[in-house]
Write a structure and sequence with these properties.
globular; 291 residues; alpha/beta; Metallo-beta-lactamase, Chain A; 14 strands; five-stranded mixed sheet; six-stranded mixed sheet; single chain
């Protein structure tokens, strides 16, 4: 894939800007004046999007990463209807602006991937179904894992090349059988979906979750990791205290970003309880069996 003129994506060179106040809903929907989708530029080639809680209480985060040949949209949010959740229009506007700034020569594609197939991460896939130069990879295991090469070798590491910007892809089941974690070599960000984030870590497959946490800890020990970015915030700023499930107003949220130390905390907590299922509250996460 040809890189665009004047754009380089050296490993570990991404700048960081997470000085952001995320939209967090409203006490009354009629008073909500926040946008349906909040857009934050982490750096000039990396965007973080958050769905407004007034549109859907899950308020998932999505990620738009630019390479030389195509962009990657990771997850598509919780609402399919573009009248209430104009994801494609928002993404197209960001892409058009980026292409203009880069003076990109020629065609430019969009790849849509997912962290897993729960509907709050896939609902707006249909908005991109007829978009030109767009590839949508299904989020369910029978579609996603063969794409990455995990179907026959679940411990393998897949690669997605956006044109000079490469992401490493790891199968990380536990929260969901099709879960995938992405490591962006350029920014050093580990995109962890619902496997680890500041909230309730629902575990459907306990042995799978234990293995995935160990694998991610091993991965991070050998590479520079700037942040772990998951797809939700469900905690309050009080350590170990979360917002009620289904809550659509969260005025006292902690930051989205976690670090490798938080990953080690999860790993240590699991080991301290002999890897047995249970509800374990950490300052910024709550591990809990699900299903």
């Amino acid at each position: 894939m040809a890189a665009s003129a004047g754009v380089d994506f050296p490993d570990g060179a991404g700048g960081a800007n997470l000085d952001v106040s995320w939209i967090h809903g409203s006490e009354a929907a009629k008073y909500n004046t926040d946008p349906d989708i909040q857009v934050h530029a982490y750096d000039e080639h990396t965007y973080i999007l958050r769905q407004n809680m007034a549109v859907h209480y899950e308020a998932p985060f999505m990620f738009l990463l630019f390479g030389g040949s195509r962009a990657l949209l990771l997850d598509t949010g919780a609402t399919p209807d573009p009248r209430f959740f104009p994801l494609r229009r928002t993404v197209d506007a960001i892409i058009d602006s980026w292409l203009a700034r880069q003076q990109h020569p020629g065609d430019y594609g969009l790849l849509v991937l997912h962290t897993h197939s729960h509907t709050d991460h896939t609902a707006a896939d249909g908005q991109f179904a007829d978009r030109p130069d767009t590839v949508i990879v299904g989020a369910k295991r029978d579609a996603a894992w063969p794409y990455f090469g995990f179907a026959d070798e679940p411990e393998s590491v897949g690669e997605v090349d956006l044109g000079g910007r490469v992401l490493d892809c790891l199968a990380t089941p536990g929260h969901h059988e099709a879960a995938v974690t992405y490591y962006d070599r350029y920014s050093g960000i580990l995109l962890t979906g619902d496997t680890i984030y500041p909230g309730r870590l629902y575990v459907f497959d306990w042995p799978g979750f234990v293995r995935s946490i160990d694998r991610l800890a091993e991965w991070c020990a050998r590479r520079p990791v700037t942040y772990l970015l998951g797809c939700h915030i469900e905690m309050t700023t009080t350590p170990g205290v979360d917002y009620p499930a289904g809550w659509s107003y969260q005025p006292d949220e902690p930051p989205l970003q976690l670090t490798t130390e938080h990953l080690r905390q999860v790993q240590a907590t699991l080991k301290a309880h002999n890897l047995q299922p249970g509800r374990y509250a950490l300052p910024q996460m709550i591990i809990t069996p699900a299903g």
